[in-house]
């Protein structure tokens, strides 16, 4: 499918991309793009025949920033506030680059620490704690939760988890494994994310997340944000890999369907 060229700008011919082209180029799903529009985060530059959405230069720049901010751990509401507050795109991109470089440096330090531990183990040498944990942020999990969903979310979840006994904790983990197994079976059988069986599993996943949040039910933005995180964050994508099959995109798409249909 071809798209119409835009007028010349800054000496370059700018071209709109259709939603299908954006999906193919970025790996973002059409459902996610529609959700971004619904929450006022990213509107298409125009809508063509049959409701086909198109995105111009400014829209693509905004989408790039959205995806970068998601990689940096921000939720959709926080991303909206950042985008609204920063009018100078070039300055904002420089800040994003700096943040990404800091994260890259931290991950490089973690990689180095693990390699050093492996080297010492293979040589039978003593392990050095200051080397083993270089680059690790022991408060990252708490800070990430508070940044994405607020301090109360962390407090509720932490209080709930500490109150569980071993049996309850094992049951909580068993429920997740059962849901994940269900997703793996459904994906293997070729079921669509919107299939009733898949959506039943997604409702169980939503309830599981709500329990882990101390009974605070995640709304549409939070649930979709979790799905995006399952795909983008390697810590979660590994969890959603079964028999070498990456299930995170399938689960994320099912979560978007569930959020649009059932959550506010």
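Sequence proposed for the structure above (264 residues):
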């Amino acid at each position: 499918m071809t798209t119409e060229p835009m007028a010349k700008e800054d000496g370059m011919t700018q071209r709109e991309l259709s939603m299908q082209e954006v999906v193919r180029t970025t790996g973002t799903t059409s459902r996610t793009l529609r959700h971004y529009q619904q929450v006022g985060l990213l509107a298409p530059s125009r809508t063509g025949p049959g409701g086909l959405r198109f995105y111009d230069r400014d829209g693509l720049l905004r989408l790039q920033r959205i995806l970068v901010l998601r990689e940096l751990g921000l939720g959709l509401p926080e991303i909206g506030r950042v985008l609204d507050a920063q009018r100078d795109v070039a300055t904002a991109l420089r800040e994003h680059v700096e943040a990404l470089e800091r994260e890259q440096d931290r991950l490089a330090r973690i990689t180095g620490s693990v390699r050093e531990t492996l080297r010492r183990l293979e040589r039978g040498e003593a392990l050095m704690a200051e080397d083993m944990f270089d680059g690790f942020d022991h408060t990252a999990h708490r800070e990430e939760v508070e940044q994405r969903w607020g301090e109360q979310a962390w407090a509720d979840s932490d209080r709930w988890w500490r109150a569980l006994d071993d049996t309850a904790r094992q049951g909580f983990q068993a429920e997740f494994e059962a849901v994940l197994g269900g997703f793996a079976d459904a994906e293997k059988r070729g079921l669509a994310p919107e299939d009733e069986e898949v959506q039943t599993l997604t409702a169980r996943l939503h309830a599981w997340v709500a329990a882990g949040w101390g009974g605070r039910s995640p709304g549409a933005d939070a649930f979709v944000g979790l799905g995006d995180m399952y795909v983008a964050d390697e810590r979660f994508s590994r969890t959603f890999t079964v028999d070498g099959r990456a299930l995170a995109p399938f689960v994320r798409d099912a979560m978007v369907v569930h959020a649009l249909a059932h959550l506010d």
